[in-house]
Amino acid sequence: MYFLKSLSNEVNSARLFFNRLSKTKQLVSGALFASLAAFFQSAGGFLPGIGIFISPFSTAPILFCFTLSLPLGFITYILTNLLLLITQPSELIIFPFTTGILGMGIGAAFYFFKKRLYIIISGATLLTVGIITLLYSFKFPVLGPVISKNFSLSTTGLIFVFTFLYSWIWVELSLAYFKKLKTFIS
Question: Where does the sequence pass through the membrane (predicted)?
Answer without folding.
Answer: 27-50, 62-86, 92-112, 117-138, 158-178
